[in-house]
Every structure is written in C-alpha cells, then in structure tokens.
Amino acid sequence: MFIAFEGGDGSGKSTQARRLADRLRQAGRDVVLTREPGGTDVGERLRSLVLDPAHAPIDAVTEALIFAASRSAHVRQLVLPALAAGRTVVTDRYVDSSVAYQGAGRALGPDTVAGLNEWATGGLHPDLTVLLDVDTATAAERRAAREQAPGGAGPDRMESEPEAFHRSIRTAFTDRAAAHPERYLVLDAGRDVPGLADEVWARVEGLLGAGTTPSGPDAESVR
Ligand SMILES: Nc1ncnc2c1ncn2[C@@H]1O[C@H](COP(=O)(O)OP(=O)(O)OP(=O)(O)O)[C@@H](O)[C@H]1O
Ligand SMILES: Cc1cn([C@H]2C[C@H](O)[C@@H](COP(=O)(O)O)O2)c(=O)[nH]c1=O
Questions:
Q1: Per-domain residue ranges for the chain?
Q2: What is the complex's ipTM, to 2 decimals?
Q3: Reduced 3-state DSSP string for the chain
Q4: Residue ranges of region Disordered (predicted)?
C-alpha cells in the first residue's frame, strides 16, 4: 500500500505521517516512512538545492523540474522496490505538492505540472492521499511556533512566500482532491493531533482489509 500526506506548510503532515507509520508497524506492517523532496541520496541533495533560501533564485520551470527529478529518483529507487517487496510506503508529500506549489503557486498550470509528473513517476498514484486542510493563518502560526522551538530552523524558500501564495496552494490541493474523491481523505487539520490520527487510521484500516494495490505500473515497467 502506498499512502501520501499532502497539505500546506505547517498543516501537520509530518506529525500525522509519523503517527500512521507507528500504527502500521504496531499492526505488523513493514513500513517505509519517506518524504519529498528527498527519500534518496540524490533527492536529499536536490532538496537542499531547491529549498535553501541562501541559494540563487530559481526560475519556476527549473524549480518544477528539480522537484520532478527528486520524485523520479524516489519512485524508481525507493518506492517501487519497497512496494514490490510487500512493504507499506508512507510519504510526506508527492505529486499533488508539485501541482499545488508549482502549478498554482508559481502559475505554471496544474495540467502542465501534472503531465510532467506522470512522466516522472511512470504514472504511479497513491492508494490513498490524506489531505490536511487548514487555513493559512493557523498554518503560519504553527510554523512560527516550530521555528521558535529549540533546534527550530528558519523558513525555507517556499515558506517565505506571501500569504496569497499559500492561499492559492490551499485551493489547488482541495480542487485536486475534489476531482479524484475516491483516492482522497480530506481532513480539517485545525483539530487535535490524536483525533486526526484516529480518522486517518479508520480509513487506512478499511484499505488494509480491502487489500489494495497501487494504481499504475510495477517496477518492471517504470525505467
Ligand atoms: N493538529 C495539530 N494541532 C496543533 N498543532 C499541530 C497539529 N499538527 C501538527 N502541529 C504542530 O505544528 C507544527 C507543524 O507540524 P508538522 O511539522 O507536522 O507540519 P508539516 O505539514 O509537516 O509542515 P511542513 O510542510 O512545513 O514541513 C509542529 O510544531 C507540530 O507539532
Ligand atoms: C514535494 C514538493 C514540495 N514543495 C515544497 C513544499 C514545502 O514548502 C517544501 C518541502 O518542505 P517540507 O517541510 O518537507 O514540507 O517544498 C514544492 O514546492 N513542490 C513539491 O513538489
């Protein structure tokens, strides 16, 4: 099973992805918890390149290609081999983040960016995408609190964008979920962490019982 968490910066994806991975492990599943950009050596290098605000400005097309390149490596080197070995993959962000941030936020167009990522992933879609939807003010407060906590890092290149950018992203995520309701669980991420985790688990438990397989190609057909 392949599960993605999506949402704006500070919506609570990492928190919920970790909780789900723990719960799946308690249920006896062999889990790979991973993230984008990242998840592989090349992906983590691309992550620091594209997110570090100290780097030179990156134009929107180049930015979209960097995220897609990280994703291609992630799918081919980590996700597909793990799924083929019967493992459950939980990823903190996937294609929808590119459609929202580069398609809407950078105005490259959702269809253009979705098409690029169909190619990058060989058409691999998650069984379930959990969209954590929260208003941008709440998300910004959470990010600020996280930055001020011990060891907290400053905002990355995307987080530094203005409120309107983050609002456009939120809309793009919810539009995409509305277009494919069968593979989304959209949650009000303004609520408490344990309550959200229970809602996620209820849906995932149902999928475990149904014995799903990811839609799209297997490792043999994605090169
Ligand atoms: N439901 C929640 N209610 C209140 N605070 C939360 C909730 N979920 C997460 N948080 C807190 O908000 C901050 C951001 O959470 P988290 O890092 O999980 O978000 P994220 O979506 O992964 O963020 P980013 O995309 O910026 O990495 C953390 O300090 C976390 O403890
Ligand atoms: C996968 C992906 C990510 N982004 C942006 C979204 C976030 O601002 C950062 C990732 O940081 P996080 O702490 O891991 O959430 O990158 C993007 O713009 N496009 C993408 O495809």
A1: 2-210
A2: 0.98
A3: CEEEEEECCCCCHHHHHHHHHHHHHHCCCCEEEEECCCCCHHHHHHHHHHHCCCCCCCCHHHHHHHHHHHHHHHHHHHHHHHHHCCCEEEEECCHHHHHHHHHHHCCCCHHHHHHHHHHHHCCCECCEEEEEECCHHHHHHHHHHHHHCCCCCCCCCCCCCCHHHHHHHHHHHHHHHHHCHHHEEEEECCCCHHHHHHHHHHHHHHHHHHCCCCECCCCCCCC
A4: 142-161
